[in-house]
């Protein structure tokens, strides 16, 4: 379960580091490795995927030291990718990999190596911005190369820090999305939801200049959890995130969604509900589901 925590950490760090994401599609020409001995950066180019206990994570290494981390598929929600910067130092053994997250002053320092069968072993556990680089592997995560393409898969929304002034996805919506995803990862690891933000290790404050955030779980119910984003100003919408546990083909899965009020209000509405027959979330009156 330690590796699952590390994967969740990567995703939530990326989600919360972008305050106002701008959804764009990157355009890169398909690259062909230079004949002869390829450099380590050239060998990295392409898409690498890990799969563990039903959770997948894709790293796409692109030209110009750009790295795209593609989230695990979540029912009823589009996949997203976060654009980062990276740097490789191939001299040490194992090799060094520095990943630079948006809106953070310190990079994530880690190590990686190529395995005999052409895969990558990367250290995710215990890597956080500002912490020392791990000297050796401990529960290293294996990534297999799935494509030489450096383009994002079709339908994936790119969260880019280049559009920090764009308001397509407001701060509160971004935070609620990150909290929902963290709850899903938390449930996958612990078979229960968290009832406080601190457990999710997002670094999200329960209050900011515009909103107050609060996790709510109905008494006696372990199969659903909500997070409310209540505005402090009358000209802002209200957001409610919801994660439900349900069944699909006999297996327990989590379904998440976000409801946004149609008009600005500082008043909380009723909580979203889940249709067990269709596994779809319905929002209360005067609000709409954000896809």
Task: Supply database-style keywords.
single chain, 291 residues, mainly beta, eight-stranded antiparallel barrel, 17 strands
Can you tell me about this structure?
The chain has helices at 2-17, 40-44, 171-190; strands at 22-24, 46-52, 55-62, 66-70, 80-89, 95-100, 108-114, 120-122, 141-147, 157-160, 211-216, 224-231, 239-248, 251-261, 273-275, 280-282, 287-290. It is globular, with a radius of gyration of 20 Å. It is mainly β. It has 2 domains: 2-26 and 41-162, Lipocalin, CATH 2.40.128; 197-290, no CATH class. Helix 1 (2-17) runs antiparallel to helix 3. The longest helix has 20 residues, at 171-190.
Brief rundown of the structure:
With 291 residues, the chain is mainly beta. Helices cover 14% and strands 36% of the residues.
Write the layout of secondary structure elements.
Layout: H1 2-17, E1 22-24, H2 40-44, E2 46-52, E3 55-62, E4 66-70, E5 80-89, E6 95-100, E7 108-114, E8 120-122, E9 141-147, E10 157-160, H3 171-190, E11 211-216, E12 224-231, E13 239-248, E14 251-261, E15 273-275, E16 280-282, E17 287-290
Parallel strand pairs: 5-10
Antiparallel strand pairs: 1-10, 2-3, 2-9, 3-4, 4-5, 5-6, 6-7, 7-8, 8-9, 11-12, 12-13, 13-14, 14-17, 15-16
Helix pairs in contact: 1-3
């Amino acid at each position: 379960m330690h590796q699952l925590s590390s994967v969740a950490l990567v995703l939530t760090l990326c989600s919360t580091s972008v305050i106002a994401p701008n959804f764009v599609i990157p355009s890169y020409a398909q690259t062909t490795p230079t004949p002869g001995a390829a450099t380590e950066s050239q060998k990295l180019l392409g898409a690498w995927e890990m799969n563990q206990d039903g959770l997948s994570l894709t790293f796409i290494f692109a030209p110009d030291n750009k790295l795209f981390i593609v989230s695990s598929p979540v029912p009823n929600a589009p996949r997203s990718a976060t654009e980062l910067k990276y740097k490789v130092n191939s001299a040490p053994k194992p090799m060094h990999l520095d990943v630079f997250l948006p809106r953070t002053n310190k990079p994530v320092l880690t190590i990686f190596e190529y395995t005999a069968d052409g895969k990558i072993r990367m250290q995710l556990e215990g890597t956080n911005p500002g912490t020392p680089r791990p000297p050796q592997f401990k529960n290293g995560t294996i990534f297999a190369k799935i494509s030489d393409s450096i383009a994002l898969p079709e339908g994936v929304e790119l969260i880019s820090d280049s559009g920090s002034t764009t308001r397509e996805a407001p701060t509160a919506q971004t935070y609620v999305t990150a909290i929902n995803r963290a709850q899903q990862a938390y449930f996958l690891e612990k078979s229960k939801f968290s009832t406080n933000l601190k457990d999710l290790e997002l670094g999200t404050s329960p209050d900011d200049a515009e909103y107050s955030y609060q996790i709510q779980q109905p008494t006696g119910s372990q199969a659903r959890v909500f997070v409310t984003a209540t505005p402090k100003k009358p000209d802002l919408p209200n957001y409610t995130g919801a994660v439900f546990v349900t069944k699909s083909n006999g297996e327990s899965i989590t379904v998440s969604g976000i409801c946004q009020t149609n008009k600005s209000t500082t008043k909380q509405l009723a909580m979203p509900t889940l249709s067990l027959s269709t596994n779809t979330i319905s929002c209360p009156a005067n609000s709409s589901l954000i896809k």
